[in-house]
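User: I'll paste a sequence; please echo it back and then give the predicted structure.

Assistant: Echoing your sequence first, then the prediction.
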Amino acid sequence: MKKTVTEKDFQKVFGEETSELVRKKIDECEFVYEELTKNERDNLILLIVDFLLEDMFVKKAGPHRINDWIKGWGENRVEFSETGDFNSLVPKYFGKHPYVRWSGQWIKPVNKDFEYNMVRMLQYWLFEKFFSSCENIYEFGCGTGHNLFRAHEVNPKANVTGLDWATSSQSTIEEINKICGLNFSGHNFDFYNVDQDFVLGKNSGVYTFAALEQIGDKYQDFINYLIKNNPSVCIHIEPIAECLDKNELCDYLSIKYFEKRKYLAGFADHLSDLASQEKIEILYEKRSFIGSVFINGYSIIAWRTKNA
């Protein structure tokens, strides 16, 4: 039996009514899916457990993976240069598996773009909510720059900058500007070696999307850098274990996957500590109930400094 994620379902996730923009974007997409049979669900759980028990071929996050990202984003750049098609910028890990996570369960989407379109709705909502009046918007860990388009669409007057440790990312942004007639800025930025000389512009909005996951528990220098630069708001859409329920099987396996891949660890607790010290103010913290086959990876924390 086919089901559809509706506008009301998104409202439950967001905790508020959707705007005209988000409603329009939802209407443009097909969020149709099927529930898994017991056999499909059992086989999927076994697949995940087998992965969690595997050691030899698991790629763990860390600075050693820099060349993987240079190569990956470079492949997207070449394809985009040849086609001029925005879809060439979408990372290849989207739509890779026939199953995704929604509302605490695994489902089988009819459309392979289901997960990516869900993420798009999440971003449209957050960017409109927090970035509409920002003069500058920065994505740290921007990869191919595909998210920058939504930041620009929500706030076309803002200066939009994409930062990434892979040099191929900056080359891709140059191609985006040339082909699409945009004026995005690109800058090389390494979370492991924070460039303190890169100063954020006034009235800035900052976001990360599935980027901090790659640095495990090495995020303190970056957060300190942000506090020093005093942005108006920071949004993190990341795999955040503290937002999940370890007593639920789907969430428990997600948390174990975070640990296996050395993804973001202790991040929400660290921000909570900073809030208790009155260095920052947490504006929003919630899971999104949107995820990929292996993880619920799109939890949200938004915060600002006390001086913002």
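The CA atoms of residues 235 and 302 lie 4 Å apart. The first strand starts at residue 2 and ends at 4.
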